[in-house]
Structures are given as structure tokens and as C-alpha cells.
Amino acid sequence: MTVLDQRSTADLVRELEPVAARELERHLATAREWFPHQYVPWAEGSNFDGEYDGDAWDPEQSRVDAVSRTALVVNLLTEDNLPSYHRALTDTVGRDSAWGEWVHRWTAEEGRHAIAMRDYLLVTRSVDPVSLERERMDHMSRGFAGYAEGNVLTTMAYVSFQELATRISHRNTGRHTDDPGLDRLLQRIAADENLHMLLYRNVMAAAFELDPDAAMEAVLDVVEHFEMPGNEVEGFTRRSLTIALAGIYDLRIHHDEVLAPVLRAWDVWDRTDLGPAGEAARERLAAFLTALDASASRFEDKRAARAARTASASG
Ligand SMILES: [Fe+2]
Ligand SMILES: [Fe+2]
Questions:
Q1: Do the beta carbons of residue 117 and residue 79 sit within 8 Å?
Q2: Segment 236-248, tens digit of pLDDT
């Protein structure tokens, strides 16, 4: 049995509740109200085929390139599966106390993301509305079974990384679209994801103080098994490769901009409070990151070689 199993999630949820309460207060004082409808260029809209006998969607109408469409659809479908994420969180931290208050508030904020993105993409005819709806049905029907759920330490570690990954993915997608309105909207959403990351990261920092060995084991577990929440989306692997080749989200970003800064914030490398189990987990974590860094470099090299081949073929 690992240290991680020795302390029950119920005990930890109770012990971390004052931290969740403090962080919720801080979040509410920091978060700025915003309105999705103000980010959408409604005047550009027109009727679709069907009930209103307008024009069906055609790829020619899209103002963004195919790579942007892939990233936008994956990001939106990921946001769409919110009911399952809510279920996973409440199954882990409950619906009572500051935890429940936070999860409901977080759900309300996340709900805005899919609303705003869908409104923008449909009004501007940026993506295919029929396949988007079919994919939403398919994705949500699959549900979501998070690897980390059920244990408050792995859950808090997972969401710390995932919120930051989502922030960067929205931010870089916005830049890639070359559409100023979409870029502004995705920046606004990314700012929300950053505040979510901060709350979870601070709760996890408190967990490290409470039980450094169990926290370290949880972090190792999550880093080794990390997958984005949208991994249940049909064709996710193929689409992730497109997104990585465009530099929107790749292993280099995952290593340098997601894992490394969050691990540093938990003082993972310099902690002096670890027992043998925590030390062993830290060593494995260091080895995993070294290997990931090497894979990231190999991918960058391959991508550069591929770009050079394309350039010489076309030039
Ligand atoms: Fe979101
Ligand atoms: Fe978020």
C-alpha cells in the first residue's frame, strides 16, 4: 500500500476545507464579471437552412483555416462536456461546505465558455454547425471518467495542470486564428482558466504541507498518466497531432509551460520534508520529466524537418 492510500479522501477533504474556503474568497474577490454576448459580432449572422430557409454552411464561408477549425472544435467539445466534469468533482469533494460552493461557482464560470465560443463560431460561420452538433452529442454521450477522480490529491493535481493546459490551448488557438474577435474572446476565456488553475494549485500546495509524501505520490501518478479532458473526442489523437504540428499545444509546451511551472510552485524539487516514499516518487518524477523533455525535442526536430521538406517542395 502506498502512502497515498493510507489517508482517506474523506479525511483530506475535511482537512483541506478551510483552504478551499480561503481560496474561494480570494477567487471571488479577484474574478471579473464578463458577458459572453458582448464578445459576439451578432450583426454578421444570417439564417441557416432548415426552419428559416437560409443558406447551409459551406467551408468557403469560414474565416479561419482548417487547423484553427480543428483546434476550435476540440476546445469547444472539451468545454461542452462540463456536466461530466461537474459530476467527477462532486463525486470527489462533495457538494457541501466551501468545496460545494466552489464547484458550483466553477461550473457556472465554465458554462460561459462553451456558450460564448458556440455563439461566436455559429454567427461567423467559422465551423460546420451540423458536425459540431453531432460531435457534441457523441462526446457527451461517452461521458468522462477522469483517471484522477475519487482521490482529492490526484484530482487537485490533475486540475491544476489541466486548467493551465486549457488556458494555453485557448490562448494559442486564438492567436493562430488570425481573427481579432476570436482572439479577444479566447483571451478572455484563458484568463478564467488561469484563475481556476491558481485556486487548484494553491489547494494542492496546502496538501503538500499537510502530507508531503502522499501529495508527491499523487503528483507523480497524475504527471505519468496525464491526458487532456477532451481525449474522448472522436479522432482526438489525429487532431492532437494537427494541433501539435501547428505549435498550438505540443509536448514542449506541456513540459515547459504546464508541468514545470506548476511543479516549481509546489517547490517539488527543493522540499526537505519528504520521507522515503516521497523521495522515491520525486526521483521517478524527475526521470519521467527528463524523458518527456527528450521526446519534446525529438518532436520539435521532426516538425522542423517536415517544415523544411514542405518549404523545399513548394519553393
Ligand atoms: Fe473552460
Ligand atoms: Fe477552467
A1: yes
A2: 999 999 999 999 9
